[in-house]
Amino acid sequence: MKLLVVGAGTMGRWFAGTVAAERAVDTDIVFADADPDAATAAADALGGRTIALDADEQFDGVCLAVPISAIEESIATHAAKAERALIDVTGVMADPVAAMAEHAPDRERVSFHPLFAPENAPGTVAVVADAPGPTTDEIRTALAAENDLFGTSPDEHDEAMATVQARTHAAVLAYALVAEDVREEFHTPISGPLTDLADQVLSGSPGVYSEVQAAFDGAEAVAAAAERIADADRDEFEQLYCEARDDRSERSSSRERDR
């Protein structure tokens, strides 16, 4: 399989390396990136090669591993290079799935979202198989060798990301901005893990977290909830506590009924 990966960052490298390592036959891995040095470094690490972004070479599959803000333009630019399959691993799904259908209507199309940073692989991968086929099936099999894949829809995925990424990141970052440094002995079963989460978030890329926040826009809801808590007196605080607990219980019961 000739596979072009547009975007030679950590996610593009992870995708290419995983597919190449798990397929039964050789994969010709090719990288293209706005930074030619990054493409060269990725290709050297994986035994692949590079091409310029404006090259017109054809490939069995083209994977877009670019920032969220660049995905639609990238699909429009590179879709014609895919002879069989067009794939993205961007992290948002509604817009890429629609753009791939527009620009590659007669080719296989699948959107993958690894729900982890590449350095924490393996993990769980969300999948929207909009137009699956033999080539994307091979890639799914390779990814599933060490990762847990599950199907979803573009809308379900993007709605979930508003909570599991945008709101979560906003809440953890807010804690990191206000938390004082305390001796380890003072940490509770709540504050200790939360501090570890803050450290994990702050070890990542600010640009990546900024892209996620802009795409899913969850900070306002967290800020509004924090303001309600900050303005509450004792009775109102207890009411908010009970409201949160009851809402969580109802959502849990609803999920159980839907299974």
Blueprint of the fold:
Blueprint lengths: L1 E5 L3 H13 L5 E5 L3 H11 L2 E2 L8 E6 L6 H8 L3 E7 L5 H10 L4 E7 L9 E8 L2 H11 L3 E4 L2 H25 L12 H12 L3 H11 L2 H13 L2 H25 L1
Parallel strand pairs: 1-2, 1-4, 2-3, 4-5, 5-6, 7-8
Antiparallel strand pairs: 6-7
Summary tags:
2 domains; elongated; alpha/beta; 259 residues; 10 helices; Rossmann fold; 54% helix
Structure write-up:
This protein has 259 residues and is α/β, with parallel strands linked by helices. It has 2 domains: 2-152, Rossmann fold (3-Layer(aba) Sandwich); 155-258. The protein is 54% helix and 17% strand. The protein has 10 helices and 8 strands. It has helices at 10-22, 36-46, 71-78, 94-103, 134-144, 154-178, 191-202, 206-216, 219-231, 234-258; strands at 2-6, 28-32, 49-50, 59-64, 82-88, 108-114, 124-131, 148-151. An 8-stranded mixed sheet has the order 3-2-1-4-5-6-7-8, with helices on both faces. Strand 5, helix 4 (94-103) and strand 6 form a beta-alpha-beta unit. Helix 1 (10-22) packs across helix 5 (134-144) and helix 6 (154-178) packs across helix 8 (206-216). The chain is elongated, with a radius of gyration of 21 Å. The protein starts with a strand and ends with a helix. 32% of the residues are buried. The model has no long low-confidence stretch (mean pLDDT 93).
Question: How much of the residues is beta strand, in percent?
Answer: 15-25%
Give the neighbour order of strands across the main sheet: 3-2-1-4-5-6-7-8
Outline type: elongated
CATH-defined superfamily of the largest domain: NAD(P)-binding Rossmann-like Domain
How much helix is in the residues?
40-55%
Number of helices: 10
Query: What's the count of strands?
Result: 8
Spans of at least 5 consecutive residues with low confidence: none
CATH topology label of the largest domain: Rossmann fold
* CATH C-level label of the largest domain: Alpha Beta
Spatial extent as radius of gyration: 21 Å
Class inferred from helices and paired strands: alpha/beta
State the oligomer.
single chain
- The succession of helices and strands, N to C, reads EHEHEEHEHEEHEHHHHH
